[in-house]
Specification:
By secondary structure, the protein is mainly beta. The protein has a single domain, classed as Porin. 12% of the residues lie in helices and 65% in strands. An 8-stranded antiparallel barrel has the order 1-2-3-4-5-6-7-10. The N and C termini lie far apart (39 Å).
Length: 152
């Protein structure tokens, strides 16, 4: 059974992975994601046009870890706008009134990202549908989010 004391271990692991990636000489970004929940987002440029994104979402009674593979393409109307799509997986740990569990599923992503030319900030708006396939079947196609990240 999952309890929220285990969440501290997951958050610690997330930041250890983040610190390990910060030593890599590639474009990276970290920030906040607002949707139906609050999240911490970390994006790493693996190769052009591929980026890997990790999102740690904090829910009222749960914690979700997302891993996404994304392909970026420049829009024809501006070199500062990119559109992207991709997919990945998530694992959700939840606990309510001494009951808890783990859910696993698949997640898609499609969005548009604006990178400022004079400050190291990017903003993205995305759609992230999810299908939960382990522990209980559930689909959610109405997940929109706004992310603001510091680019380094």
């Amino acid at each position: 059974m999952f309890n929220f004391k285990d969440m501290r271990k997951l958050v610690f692991l997330f930041f250890i992975i983040f610190i390990a990636f910060t030593n890599i000489k590639a474009q990276q970004a970290i920030g906040a994601r607002l949707s139906d929940n609050f999240g911490i987002t970390y994006k790493y440029t693996y190769s052009n046009p591929v980026k890997l994104e990790g999102i740690l979402e904090i829910h009222r009674h749960a914690l979700t870890v997302n891993g996404l593979y994304e392909r970026y393409y420049q829009t024809p109307f501006s070199k500062y706008f990119d559109w992207y799509f991709g997919g990945g997986a998530f694992i959700n740990f939840w606990s309510v009134n001494d009951n808890g569990g783990v859910n696993v599923g698949l997640r898609g992503v499609a969005g548009i990202c604006y990178t400022f030319s004079d400050i190291p900030i990017d903003i993205s708006l995305d759609w992230m549908p999810a299908i939960q396939i382990v522990s209980d079947y559930h689909a959610d196609f109405a997940i929109l989010g706004l992310s603001v990240r510091y680019v380094f």
